[in-house]
């Protein structure tokens, strides 16, 4: 025997209010939506949808298609049944509604819903549905076709019937509806500010622009850096992207204002633009994108994917155009949003070109774009970190090695990706230890003569795990360099940790420590007059003091981490030097 499902309306309303809709306020949207659809169905464009509200009772009247008594039973009293689907059950294109549940949202704020409706010349019908799941139908009086829905606030829900609240909500949801909507006689609907047709007839481009900027100020609270007009025909989408005038975190996704068929869907839709386009906030209206059942978010489907891509293309095009037509302004834009653009350049050639041509990088020959750098020096030689750059900049410059600081966020990766623009183009990472290959060794005889000094110096440096070498390099004004390559840097960190760790961990850590070959190097510059004088010292204590001082100086100069032992050394050598410099009491006059 076939039986029919029973529906517990209270259970369903509870489901809607706690799990589907984010707030009871959506009841007004659903009522407006039904009135709009009925008006559309009747073809009575221009007929006003009138909301009357007094703080406790709300009525909404339309001159739309209305319902016959049979339809009242079929559509109003059947949950999940909608007149807005075609014979195959697909949502009909011209309507906002499709799910057949919207009217139930009235029960979020009222115990019963009263509908008086008339379809054409058929007799008017009064329907009263109650939250307990029962309804009554009876005859009614109504002068012309259309529908009036009346709700009375359930005790505790009066806030949703307050006149200012209803005006605000009607404006929020229905502000761009194609049919005129009034609340207590006040019109709340109007044309989207970006519509080019009709309304634009007597607007000059300047006025139009001022209107769009004004819209951003009113709705988003900022004066946009620029306004980009959006159009994606396949999604029936038009709208605007406002470029943020302030830096936004790539992680914090901006919310966009999305209208579907000119009814507000969301003030904070997050999946409209590609992630990289975090520098823009949009307001759009689409005739084709679909809502989720709550009507508070966009349904994720392939149309949304292709729309997102098309909107991304529009913003990318805007950027590229700006570079072509107004470089100064593009520089301003990059000043605000370089992080996002650089993040994008990591996987987008167009953006990579933009950064290459327009973003000034720090180099040891002054600020310049990568494109300029390449034009002047060919190979893009770069350091991977800012610390490396600080160590290398002066030495590299003295050796005619122009060098880019790749240490800022994304810069090294961007430089490494440059060959994607042009296979001929070469980039090379410079490590501090690479410099060693450019240092000249001393004549064997000279080296031999300095051996006793070097041995003494090495003994002094052994406790610090570093090798002392003597080389000749430019600039002569730089007496010493502390060179750590990547592996050696790791080792020295390990050592520093081990010094602080307790015995058990020290044992574990020392298993990682490799002997000698990767030790950092203290490179003394034999071209430095000071170093030459130091090399002539014979008194072991003085040699030690001089070498320790040079070591401390090199650590500070290269922004190397200072371990406790290093700090003690700095202190000791500073005092030692003072002690040497200041005459002893016997010598004082
Ligand atoms: N003002 C109205 N004028 C004429 N018919 C109406 C009106 N309001 C509701 N209806 C009828 O009641 C049906 C159910 O309305 P309901 O709001 O529950 O669902 P829907 O609008 O079809 O879809 P959705 O759940 O997406 O809003 C509608 O399909 C429509 O036939």
From TrEMBL:
Molecular function GO labels: ATP binding; ATP hydrolysis activity; ATP-dependent protein folding chaperone; unfolded protein binding
UniProt KW keywords: ATP-binding, Chaperone, Nucleotide-binding
Sites where the protein binds ATP: 30, 34, 62, 147
Domain of life of the native organism: Bacteria
Listed InterPro entries: HATPase_C_sf, Hsp90_fam, Ribosomal_Su5_D2-typ_SF
Record Pfam families: HATPase_c_3 (PF13589)
Family as reported in the entry's similarity comment: Belongs to the heat shock protein 90 family.
Protein name in UniProt: HSP90 family protein
Organism: Actinophytocola xinjiangensis
């Amino acid at each position: 025997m076939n039986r029919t499902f029973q529906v517990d309306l209270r259970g369903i309303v509870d489901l809607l209010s706690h799990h589907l809709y984010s707030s009871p306020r959506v009841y007004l949207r659903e009522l407006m939506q039904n009135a709009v659809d009925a008006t559309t169905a009747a073809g009575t464009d221009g007929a006003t949808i009138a909301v009357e509200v007094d703080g406790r009772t709300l009525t909404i009247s339309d001159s739309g298609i209305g319902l016959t008594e049979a339809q009242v039973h079929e559509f109003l009293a059947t949950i999940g049944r909608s007149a807005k689907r075609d014979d195959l059950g697909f949502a009909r294109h011209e309507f906002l509604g499709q799910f057949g549940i919207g009217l139930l949202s009235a029960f979020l704020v009222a115990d019963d819903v009263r509908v008086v409706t008339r379809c054409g010349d058929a007799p008017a019908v009064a329907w009263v549905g109650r939250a307990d799941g029962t309804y009554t139908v009876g005859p009614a009086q109504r002068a012309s076709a259309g529908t009036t829905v009346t709700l009375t606030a359930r005790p505790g829900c009066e806030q949703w019937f307050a006149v200012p609240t209803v005006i605000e909500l009607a404006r929020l949801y229905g502000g761009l509806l194609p049919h005129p909507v009034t609340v207590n006689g006040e019109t709340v609907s109007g044309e989207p500010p970006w519509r080019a047709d009709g309304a634009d007839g007597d607007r000059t481009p300047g006025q139009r622009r001022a209107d769009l900027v004004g819209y951003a100020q009113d709705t988003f609270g900022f004066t946009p850096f620029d306004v980009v007009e959006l159009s994606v025909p396949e999604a029936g989408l038009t709208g605007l992207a406002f470029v943020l005038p302030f830096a936004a975190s790539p992680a914090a996704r901006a919310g966009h204002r999305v209208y579907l068929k000119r009814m507000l869907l969301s003030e904070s839709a997050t999946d409209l633009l590609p992630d990289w386009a975090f520098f823009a906030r949009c307001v759009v209206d689409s005739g084709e994108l679909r809502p989720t059942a709550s009507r508070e978010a966009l349904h994720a489907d392939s149309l949304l994917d292709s729309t997102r891509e098309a909107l991304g293309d529009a913003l990318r095009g805007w950027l590229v155009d700006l570079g072509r037509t107004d470089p100064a302004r593009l520089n301003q834009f990059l000043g605000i949003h370089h992080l996002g653009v650089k993040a994008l350049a990591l996987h987008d050639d167009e953006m990579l070109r933009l950064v290459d041509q327009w973003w000034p990088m720090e180099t040891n020959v002054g600020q310049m774009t990568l494109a300029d750098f390449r034009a002047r020096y060919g190979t893009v030689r770069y350091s991977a970190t800012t610390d490396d750059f600080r160590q290398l900049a002066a030495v590299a410059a003295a050796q005619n090695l122009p060098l880019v600081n790749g240490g800022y966020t994304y810069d090294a990766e961007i430089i490494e990706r440059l060959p994607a623009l042009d296979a001929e183009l070469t980039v090379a990472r410079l490590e501090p230890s690479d410099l060693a290959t450019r240092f000249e060794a001393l004549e064997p005889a000279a080296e031999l003569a300095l051996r006793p000094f070097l041995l003494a110096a090495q003994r002094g440096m052994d406790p610090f795990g570093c090798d002392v070498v003597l080389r000749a390099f430019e600039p002569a004004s730089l007496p010493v360099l502390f060179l750590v390559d990547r592996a050696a840097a790791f080792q020295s960190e390990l050592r520093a940790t081990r010094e602080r760790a307790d015995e058990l961990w020290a044992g574990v850590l020392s298993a990682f420590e490799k002997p000698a070959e990767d030790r950092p190097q203290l490179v003394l510059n034999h071209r430095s007059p000071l170093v030459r004088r130091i090399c002539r010292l014979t008194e072991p204590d003085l040699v030690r003091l001089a070498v320790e001082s040079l070591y401390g100086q090199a650590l500070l100069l290269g922004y190397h981490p200072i371990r406790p032992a290093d700090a003690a050394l700095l202190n000791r050598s500073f005092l030692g030097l003072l002690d040497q410099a200041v005459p002893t009491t016997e010598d004082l006059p």
